[in-house]
Give the backbone structure.
Amino acid sequence: MEIEFEGSKLFYHKAGEGKKNILFFHGFGQDHRIFLPVIDVLRHDYTCYSFDLFFHGQSVWAKGDTPIPKEEWNRLIDLFLNRESIQKFTVVGYSLGGRLAFTTLELYPTHIEKIILVAAEGLRKNMWYSIATSSPGKNIFRSFINHPNRFTSLLKMSQYLRLVPKGLVRFVSHQMNTDDKRTRVYFSWLVFSHLNFSISDVASLIRHYAIQSIFVFGKTDHIMKMNEAARIKEHIAEADIQLIDAGHYELIKHLPSHISEWVNPHSSGEA
């Protein structure tokens, strides 16, 4: 199913017959299908909506590398909620999808019953991301996309100087090893670059609207490191911190075995 607005198209997959609603936002290089095993677990209790992010799957962003403003995401989700007659829902965001989950939280705090952030982006600024998506850095970033040998040389130098961890080097290398992947990195980074949030603002929303929050981290994740959990707990004492023995990519495979416990309103505690 699709939501269209000003030439852009937001695709989502609907499944399940439960009275409660849950929205899923996937990570980079994936599409809505990554959540199908999770949906199979929840389909009797929830109606599940799994979205394709722009530049992934069947969703289309019509404005090139122009960043999506929060107001436009507001309009798209408004259209979606009205079409599906949804009043209350749970949100799940994994990795890059965390930016959309946090945006949805900011825009619809009175509608959200629970938010589950799995190795989610959006709360901490990454130096390389900030440089690449800045006005002067954008042209340099584009040159790396068009001339991958330059990027490879920079990556090797950064690794030699220990400016980035080995795990992150492997992750970036894997996501930049074809023309299609490099193009998707460029547009995804630019288009979602304005979707950043302060942890204090997120904490205020969660506390004020009594939204149950679960933050999930992988113990061997080199992208969204486990030590971020302590910072979150300092700001959101009520947050349920879940630590799973997995790396960044493997986390998604663990969701089916944990999701029922997490969406259960009586579940709590730290793994």
